[in-house]
Amino acid sequence: MEIFKEIEPLRAYLKQFRQLKSSIGLVPTMGALHAGHLALIEASRKENTLTVCSIYVNPAQFNNLQDLEKYPQTLERDTALLKASGCDVLFCPSHHEMYKNQDHIRFDFGALDKILEGEYRPGHFSGVALVVSKLFNIVLPNKAYFGQKDFQQFLLVKKLVEDLNFDLELKRVPIVREADGLAMSSRNMRLSTQQRKDAPVFYQALQHAKKMLLSGKDLKAVQNEIQLMCERKPGVRLEYFALADKENLKLAESVTGQSILLIAGYVGEIRLIDNLVVGDEN
Length: 282
Ligand code: AMP
What we know:
Elements: E1 2-4, H1 7-19, E2 24-29, H2 35-47, E3 50-55, H3 65-69, H4 75-85, E4 89-91, H5 95-98, H6 117-120, H7 124-139, E5 143-147, H8 151-163, E6 169-173, H9 193-198, H10 201-214, H11 219-231, E7 236-245, E8 259-267, E9 270-277
Parallel strand pairs: 1-4, 2-3, 2-5, 3-4, 5-6
Antiparallel strand pairs: 7-8, 8-9
The protein binds adenosine monophosphate.
């Protein structure tokens, strides 16, 4: 595996492959890699001649300084995992390499970045759009891989690609879960033993809600039940639980073939998100 910390040598390296008409797959991550990230690498390896993984904890997308400072950084372990997974290139730039200007452009996605995650993490999606645009322009991938776990992020990146005419194909990879249903996340590392036991509550809530909605229960009643389910666990705090249209995340009152349930909350001070499709898959 080739490792690059700087943009220009990476560009020069990738240029040779592009001339050979190789297909380049990009997997952007913030490191502290787990099986969810490795599923993206695997998907890219199947569909491309060259897979590039980026590891960069992007300050511009953190609205909470403590979350940024405590974000796990395990570059040595990540490098070994990537090598073992058959990833071809690792790009792990410094902050100085990624942000020459302190004052950078901001993105506005209209309704899409004001709701759900956008409401609770102001500025987050603008920071995501900025770093993803940079990575697209640096790597010029044919395909880019993102996880279903960050569903709103996927829709946002889709809009970014459409509106800015990035010449690439976006791929969405299903959520990889622990045996007890907890969606894998780098932040799970920070959970204490008790918190780790409580953390699957969000997935359990999604499953329970799906069942209730499909049996015809009213959304308000379902929302109340989910709130109670979370309150029963000390240290768990529900931030939002919503039923929405998976094309545009417009909030819905009842289930359609297009529905998705989204949830976010805290276990102690660790913020977790999850989602579950209620209507038809894909
Ligand atoms: P992150 O390092 O958290 O920024 O995530 C990098 C990419 O991995 C994003 O596209 C995430 O959606 C994806 N990802 C994170 N967790 C999972 C998971 N449990 N299953 C599938 N994809 C994931």
